[in-house]
Write a structure and sequence with these properties.
Belongs to the 3-oxoacid CoA-transferase subunit A family. There is one protein chain. The chain is α/β, with parallel strands linked by helices. It has a single domain, classed as Glutaconate Coenzyme A-transferase (3-Layer(aba) Sandwich). It is built from six helices and eleven strands. Strands 1, 2, 3, 4, 8, 9, 10 and 11 form an eight-stranded mixed β-sheet that branches. It has a three-stranded antiparallel β-sheet with strand order 5-7-6, with helices on one face. Helix 5 crosses helix 6. The longest helix is centred in the middle third of the chain and has 13 residues. The protein is globular and about 50 Å long. The relative contact order is 0.19.
Length: about 230
């Protein structure tokens, strides 16, 4: 069995070069690949096209890549927590493509399944429709949405083995399994790394066939995006 383990985040992202298109797992700040994002910042790679559900927050996650001007284009569903993102958008420094959340997931799924495109009703009759093929099935209009063509997918899992099988924990599962399927090269950082064969096959969320590199991450902050409390 192939051992897919690399030493650390720096080794995992070593061949991500300027102009690459990268899928980044996570939802808000939940389940984001913190170590790999830090390694990309350290590497100072430029001109990235980042595909993610959101753009992080100021000073953390993808927000740090934006602050360093390392992102050329952002493809996302929700971006409301990042003032620097808003500033770059309004000044024309950043190219942005906003897409419905379900469409984001489905375009990942299509890439993983080897499908070139899918038809979806989301976005019909809105700005999302601009420039896209519209077809009618059984009296209902659908948009043609192309599968993502990403050079890399970077995901974060709770546990993984040396063969690349991954287990996600609770809501950190979110976009990670879908994006793990969709990259030409998929990199997984995990909190716990075990030997191949130690994971219960029935508990594996992402089979190792989709994963090319895996490493044990460290020093996870796991920040809370919006802390909500109540009086007793």
């Amino acid at each position: 069995m192939i051992n897919k383990v690399v030493m650390n985040a720096d080794a995992a992202v070593e061949d991500i070069c300027d102009g690459a298109t990268v899928l980044l797992g996570g939802f808000g700040l939940c389940g984001i690949p913190e170590n790999c994002i830090a390694a990309l910042i350290k590497k100072k790679v430029q001109g990235l096209t980042c595909i993610s559900n959101n753009a992080g927050v100021d000073g953390f996650g993808i927000g740090m890549l934006l602050a360093n001007r390392q992102v050329k284009k952002m493809i996302a569903s929700y971006v409301g927590e990042n003032a620097e993102f808003e500033r770059q958008l309004l000044t024309g420094e950043l190219e942005v493509e906003l897409i419905p959340q379900g469409t984001l997931a489905t375009r990942c799924l299509a890439a993983g399944y080897g499908m070139p495109a899918v038809f979806t009703p989301a976005g019909v009759g809105t700005e999302v429709e601009a420039g896209k093929e519209v077809r009618v099935f059984k009296g209902k209009a659908y948009l043609l949405e192309e599968a993502f063509d990403a050079d890399f997918a970077i995901v974060k899992a709770w546990k993984g083995d040396t063969a690349g099988n991954l287990v996600f924990r609770a809501t950190a599962r979110n976009f990670n399994p879908l994006m793990a399927m969709a990259g030409k090269i998929t990199i997984a950082e995990v909190e716990h790394l075990v030997e191949a064969g130690e994971l219960d096959p029935d508990e594996v969320h992402t089979p190792g066939i989709y994963v090319h590199r895996v490493f044990k991450g460290a020093k996870y902050e796991k920040r809370i995006e919006q802390r909500t409390t109540r009086n007793k």
